[in-house]
Design brief:
Helices cover 36% and strands 20% of the residues. The chain has 107 residues and is an alpha+beta fold. Strand 1 and strand 2 (20-25) form a beta hairpin.
């Protein structure tokens, strides 16, 4: 039997919304904070993809990973059409989720 949890496929974008990153996580809030604060080295830090512009929720990790791979295989135009269906203005969805404040660093 599969474990039932919450997983998200999400899209982060830079300030100009011309660079996007697609990922999967089991904690969307923590992952958003990691991208937003740049604590993890890599693509999103390098290209300043700090804005959550899209997400989908899944119960099974296998489904989320399958969807992440599917979206990553799409052409940019198709990805942007999907994102704009739910977020026409490409705004940072963190404020709608009540994530306006970044907690202070514990370092």
């Amino acid at each position: 039997m599969k474990n039932i949890h919450q997983y998200w496929v999400y899209v982060m974008a830079n300030g100009w919304r011309n660079v996007i990153y697609i990922g999967v996580t089991n904690n969307l809030y923590i992952r958003y904070l990691q991208h937003k604060t740049g604590v993890v080295e890599g693509f999103t830090k390098k290209y300043k993809c700090h804005h959550l512009i899209y997400y989908e929720e899944y119960t099974y990790i296998e489904d989320a990973i399958r969807r992440e791979k599917e979206l990553k295989g799409w052409r940019r135009e198709k990805k942007m059409r999907l994102i704009r269906q739910q977020n026409p203005l490409l705004k940072d969805l963190a404020s709608e989720l009540g994530w306006n404040e970044i907690p202070p660093s514990s370092e």
